[in-house]
Amino acid sequence: MYPVDPRTQLALEYLTLSGFGTGIPPQRLAERVRFGHQPPQLDFRPPTPPFGPALSDRKIDEYRRSLFIPDVPPSVTIQQLSTTFRLFGSIQEIFQRESSRSAVVIFVEGDSAFDALKAKILINNLEIYCEPRRINGKVYAPNIPMDVETPARILTQSGGRGVPYSIVANLPIVPGSAYAHDFPAIHNGPNNILYRGPVATRAPVFAPQPKPGPNNLHQNNTYSNILPNQPLPLPIQQNKPLPQHKKETQIQKLLRQMPYLNSTNDPVMQMSLLMQNAELNSEEYRQREQIRSQLEQSFRKIFRRCDLRMYGSSVNTFGVRGSDIDSYLELHLDSEEAQKEFPPREKSIGYYNNNVTQLFNHPYEPGELKKFTKQQILRLMEKLHRYLSKSYRWDNILAVPEARTPILRLHQSLTNMSIDVSFSSKLVFQNTGLLILYSMMDSRIRPLVYTIRRWADTKELTGDMGFTKYALTMLLLFFLSNTKPVVVHSPEQIIAWIESSDEYKNRTGESSPENQAGSSFSFDLPVQELQTLARMIPASLNQRSPAQLLMDFFAYYASFDFPRNVMSTFTGEVIPVQSFEIPPDGFRIRYVNLQDPFDMAHNIAKSVSLHTFIQMREWMRQEVAVFSRIPLNVVTLFDKDYTESCLPAIPVAVSISAHKSKTPFAEWIPKVADVTKRIFEDFFRCEFVRELSEEDAALIPFDRAIPQLGPVLNDYHCHLQCRSWDKRRHFRKTAIKGMKIGSLKDEWSLEASIGDFLHKQTFGKVTLEFYVTIMENKCETDKVCVYLTSATRSDEVGEFFELLWKFLPDQIRRFLKVDDVAAKPAAPSNSESVAEENQQSTEDLEVGA
Q1: At what angle do helices 469-480 and 546-558 cross, to 10 degrees?
Q2: pLDDT tens-place string over residues 286-303
Q3: Assign residue 786 a region: left if phi > 0, alpha if psi is -120 to 50, beta otherwise?
Q4: Class of residue 436 by CB neighbours under 10 A (exposed 0-12, middle 13-18, buried 19+)
Q5: How far apart are alpha carbons 122 and 130 in whole angstroms?
Q6: Helix 267-278 and helix 546-558: axis angle, to 10°?
Q7: Distance (Å, rounded) from C-alpha 42 to C-alpha 167?
Q8: Quick one: DSSP state of residue 462?
Q9: Is pTM beyond 0.85 here?
């Protein structure tokens, strides 16, 4: 036998049964072990000189902290791998090899790699197999944490010895062993179950002495002489009922996170306390500046003349503790020095990607960088920080070249701070300077910004499909520039005032590119100059308090027609979509159209989805209705459970896309309307009372608050007298056993039979009145929206609408593929006249029920 490192031996003994490092999936190995096969043995030969030089202790430690993923599914991205494996601990580095579909994950701590090996990892419902690193034929398994019991440690503590065994009948059981795996049963014949529970692959010759106690089945026996082929008795586990804790309410959770809000009932004081406890403190500013300085020194190793500047929430006075750092790498590509010509280098930039240290003595000059693409520069930045990751504790290094602005994302495990580095657009400093100027012009702006951001978080209006913090801030500033009298002026008016002043005319400085107003004025100025400019602008005549302005903000946007208008934050004007001039670089019309004040082609709120847009409008209407009756309180404002019962139910919007349909869009639209109506009639037994005209819709006794995304195709008034949505999945499983599903027609018949059965069973138990509005969606390409509204706010309406929100899109898309299903005559809603083909299925459902 070859000598084996004791740590490697201990870890590999633990991992052998699960198949780690053997190339066999754990499930397949478990089947082999269950039928008596010997677990595969690993070859622990040490590397010989032909395989390479001896490794340093530092490199071996890195291998033990890393895992190898031999086959990454094509649908799994590097971002998903990073997000999933960070659940086990901090990641130093993760990279995917371009030549194959394998990947390597390097953790900061060895315990994280050990935990990841034991876990069953699923991404997109696909299992990700991991194994220890194998370098030059040697396996470097993670060290087992000291708090994990292994057979070797059990024997060491008890003074016994271990003997290896394969899993066969009468295998000794080691309670609490780290080798234990839960198999259904061990059989010694067709009807003889020897043991059901955890099974071990090693057992002690001298088993440990069990501690006496009430849970021990044999308190007076000693087990010092039990042989390996005799099973050990297991202790009886007493199942104690878990204490039942009451579910924490929204108010309790809020006051636990922000107890200072309960110290006063004054909304202005509450908003100020919220701002003071959320804003960045001096320690965070110092920490962010230190990280910026470290990064700047790192970049100067490969770029001779570069500067790193922070922008966004880190410097614009609206930062939140723990938020990410946004930074811009200034490469001075438009400077005079960049116009100089440099002779080409012998090595290409691709060579330096793999040998980044070769640039430390001869960094790139600005004139040389002008020849490279943004993706090449970004790749070089990524390689640099992978090399420096250990020195500066960078982990989760990720380049995002496909973003609107290519960025490099880093995370520092030492400070738990994330930073984004961009280098393509300097307009971000214009936005940052403008926000700093606004915060200096009026002291009411900062409490309002922090309160509205927190309100949007509690109402779940932020995220990938919602508003960004910058979008919420600009939404507030646009409103403040449209109050009467105005609280703050638009950037266009500010520039006009500043340029007309004598003090500005006497200033000297570098000229800036012209903005939308044709001026060369730039907000990218030092803080001292911005303070001087703030004193030059006339003070606001609006004397309303921050609490009053907050309610005005909700009232203004609760009735604002977002899809039909564009909000120009530069001029402060509301421009109808029909008369809006699309910039040369384009502008994406969406549900909320908020134009950036300096990048005219950028819709700040383009990420807002239809669902988030509907929720935002309804929550704003909710706040107006609630606080028109009671005084404003920030605690009540953040309480998602506090609702106004007099308001109608929140409408549900279902979006149907035609991008995969071969039918022309003009012919596809009426099919969607027809199939939608048929689903309500056949599947849910809804009665269509009437189709509403424009005059009838105007006479509805409540405000449905349906945004006009396009022309209305159909508008129906519906009536439902049964719980046809309740337990549909359960009854579908029962009915499908007695039917042969061979086509979409059969599935339609099955769903219709379930609706008929539920109509019989629950007829008269509920009465719902609701409206179905089918509308073309002009905010997105080739889409139709189905709106569901009701004047009643009840649990039944909420359950019915929630099921339809999940059920309708998939069913409409599927049954649009069958033309004759859509053309099928309407089935009667009366339960006595049911189609003959569904009668047998209905009887089977009744028997099953």
Answers
A1: 100
A2: 999 999 998 998 898 888
A3: beta
A4: buried
A5: 11
A6: 90
A7: 18
A8: B
A9: no
CA-angle at 93, arms to 90 and 97, nearest 5°? 140
Tens of pLDDT, residue by residue over 141-192, are 887 665 554 433 333 333 333 333 223 233 333 333 333 333 333 334 444 4
Q: How far apart are CA 376 and CA 719, in angstroms?
A: 62
Per the rule left: phi > 0, alpha: psi between -120 and 50, beta: everything else, 113 is alpha
* Dihedral sign computed on CA atoms, order 73, 83, 419, 363: negative
Q: Which two tokens stand for residue 321?
A: 């503790």
Q: Which has the higher per-residue pLDDT, 162 or 84?
A: 84
Beta-carbon contacts of residue 409 (< 8 Å; ≥ 6 apart): 396, 397, 398, 399, 400, 418, 419, 420, 421
Asked if residue 311 has pLDDT above 90, the reply is yes
Which domains occur in the chain, in start order?
A: 6-140 (3.30.70.330), 278-422 (3.30.460.10), 439-638 (1.10.1410.10), 652-848 (no CATH)
Distance CA 496, CA 741 (A): 71
* Residue that the structure tokens 């490697």 belong to: 8
* pLDDT for residue 33 is more than 50: no
Mean pLDDT value across residues 437-452: 94
Is there a contact between 608 and 465 (Cβ–Cβ < 8 Å)?
A: yes
Q: Residue 184: which H helix or E strand, with range?
A: strand 181-187
CB count within 10 Å of CB 429 equals 21
Token digits of residue 540: 């606001």
Q: Is the peptide bond before 447 cis (omega within 30 degrees of 0)?
A: no
Residue 358: CA count within 13 A, CB half-sphere: 12
pLDDT in tens, 622-670: 899 899 888 999 999 998 877 766 677 778 888 888 766 777 888 888 8
Terminal alpha carbon distance of the chain: 66
Map residue 123 onto helix, strand or coil: strand
Reading the block at residue 758, the tokens are 């539920």
59-83 per-position pLDDT tens digit:
888 888 899 998 888 888 888 888 8
SS3 content of the chain, % helix, strand, coil (to 5): 40, 15, 45
Residue 375 sits at the vertex; the CA angle it makes with 371 and 381, to the nearest 5 degrees, is 95
Per-residue pLDDT for 55 more than 50?
yes
3-state SS of 712-742?
Answer: EEEEEEEEECCCCCCCHHHHHHHHHCCCCCC
Question: Taking a C-beta distance cutoff of 8 angstroms, is the pair 559, 553 a contact?
Answer: no
Residues 620 and 751: beta-carbon distance below 8 Å: no
Residue 258 CB neighbours (<10 A) = 18
- Helices 839-848/728-736 angle, 10° precision: 110
Give the whole-angstrom CA distance, residue 837 versus residue 834.
Answer: 9
Task: Output the DSSP codes for 778-842.
Answer: TTSTTEEEEEEE-S---HHHHHHHHHHHHHHHHHHHHHTT-HHHHTSPPPPSSTTS--GGGHHHH
Distinct helix (H) and strand (E) counts, the chain: 29, 24
Closest CA to 422 of 303, 333, 311: 311
* Residue 408 contacts residue 501 (beta carbons within 8 Å): no
User: What does the mean pLDDT of the chain come to?
Assistant: 76
SS3 label, residue 419: strand
Structure tokens at 166: 């394969």
The three-state (H, E, C) secondary structure of 225-250, written as one string: CCCCCCCCCCCCCCCCCCCCCCCCCH
Select from 311, 304, 307, 301 the least CA-distant residue to 329: 307
> CA–CA distance from 504 to each of 408, 497, 530 (Å)?
38, 10, 12
Residues ≥6 apart with Cβ < 8 Å to 256: 248
